[in-house]
Amino acid sequence: FYPNPALDYIYFNNSDDISQIEIYDIIGKLVLKDDLMTNDALNIEKLKKGNYLLKIINNNNSVTTRKLIKK
């Protein structure tokens, strides 16, 4: 995904393979969830500035976790 740090949107290269996106705050609380990736962008403008964990779940149920910085 890109950009990181991000301001309003994050974009995904292979969004067709993604079944779900989850964003967690630094204490582990789920703050954003997108079950159906309809395009390659995710609006994060409502998130407060800070550090988050981005959990990407693929169609084959493999999970990738990355650090996301919201500016």
Quick structural overview:
With 71 residues, this protein is mainly beta. The protein has strands at residues 9-11, 18-24, 30-34, 41-43, 50-58, 63-70.
Strand and helix map with partners:
Blueprint: E1 9-11, E2 18-24, E3 30-34, E4 41-43, E5 50-58, E6 63-70
Antiparallel strand pairs: 1-4, 2-3, 2-5, 5-6
Q: How would you state the average pLDDT, rounded?
A: 92
Distance between the termini: 16 Å
pLDDT below 50 for ≥5 consecutive residues: which ranges?
Answer: none
Tally the helices: what do you get? Answer: 0
Strand content: over 45%
Helix content: under 10%
Quaternary structure classification? single chain
The string of secondary-structure elements, in order, is EEEEEE
Largest sheet geometry: 4 strands, antiparallel
Shape category: globular
Q: What strand order characterises the main sheet? A: 3-2-5-6
Give Rg in angstroms. 11 Å
**Count of distinct strands:** 6
- What structural category do the secondary elements indicate? mainly beta
Describe this structure in words.
With 71 residues, the protein is mainly β. The chain is 0% helix and 49% strand. The strands form two sheets. It has a four-stranded antiparallel beta sheet, with no helix packed on it. Strands 1-4 form a two-stranded antiparallel ribbon. A hairpin with a 5-residue loop joins β2 and β3 (30-34). The mean pLDDT is 92.
Keywords:
4-stranded antiparallel beta sheet; 71 residues; single chain; mainly beta; globular
